[in-house]
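Q&A log
Question type: sequence-to-structure
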Amino acid sequence: MFYPLSIWIGLRYTRAERRNHFISFISFISTLGITLGVIVLITVLSVMNGFHKEVRERILGMASHADIRAASGSLEAWKPTLEKALRHPRVVGAAPYVESQTMLVHGRQVSGALVRGIDPEMEPSVVDVGEHMQQGGLDQLQPGSFNIVLGRELALALGAGVGDRVTVLVPRFTATPTGSVPRMKRFTVSGIFSVGMGEFDRGVALVNLKDLALLLKMKEGVTGIRLKLDDVFASRQVSLELAQQFRGWFHVTDWTDRHRNFFAALRMEKRMMGLLLFFIVVIAAFNIVATLVMVVVDKRADIAILKTFGASPRQIMNIFIVQGSVIGLVGTLLGVVGGVALALNVEQVVAWIEQVFNVHFIDPDVYYISVLPSDLHWDDVALVGFGSFLCSFLMTLYPAWNAYRTLPAEALRYE
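Response status: OK
Response body:
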């Protein structure tokens, strides 16, 4: 597209000290605006990726990568199924579980919750809830102990602490002379966990698998089998392979099915935030139009002389496209370097600002984190860089077209 003459003259115009200092100032502002826009965009996208990663890890601290459930609702002979699932090359952990929606009662406080029965020895191979224990441990959930571990928010709602007794009511009924009454059992609070997600801290309690199965009259059956994979993003493919392997006798789901709407909302939020912030780059790129329009007016005599010496209109147009593209390229490269550097060190930068100005941007009591997370994705960097340069290039077309239409006789009439 560009001729050597156009590139040489365009670069010369870029490096030359202009007589009109206002044009030089606008050119500098254009470069600076693009640089700052790219830095902000890369940093914000990295911080959003960091928050999304933090949320995903907290969800997977309680939710398995994939679940196998019986089509009948109760998985009786679950051990052969578990062993068969473990033979899949991407499955690295498996554990049975029993769960039921229940009503928890402590004193006058009542709260609904999902009570999950787990095997304390096998559960750590699937999720890392043991790492989020604030009090007690999973090893206290022994068969027959009827101990229960509550989420932090659930414990606060019930006003229960370690050592207190909590009554668990399950949706199973026992016939009595006075009518049907729900089955219930008193459990002792042996621990409290906190994963930083209200869905689990407020709505989940853990007990021993056999204790809950006894309360639900499930005998040796379980609700299903929870799986951990070597790659969390391969859960969809592995679930499909296991579903085909078990031939329709089981329902196989993955973590994206249970939180599809939530993660779709996060992706939409990232796209919209990125689009809105990209307008910073667009606005900065508009300064390129102003710069080149003034340069074209300032160089009308030069354009006329070049055309008189035989330069084609296309060559004249390319001169100013090169000049504007150089401004956009320099701004984009500086922005990419600055954005990557800031995204990789945003935690330290925020900590320094908090220390210097004695402010706190993130309250750990509210967000359950004390630092600003950042997760740099190079595909985001490439997309921002390409989009910024493309926008800058497009902004050069109108001024270059004005230079293209310059008539030598008109430009030299008063010279």
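Response note: The chain has 16 helices and ten strands.
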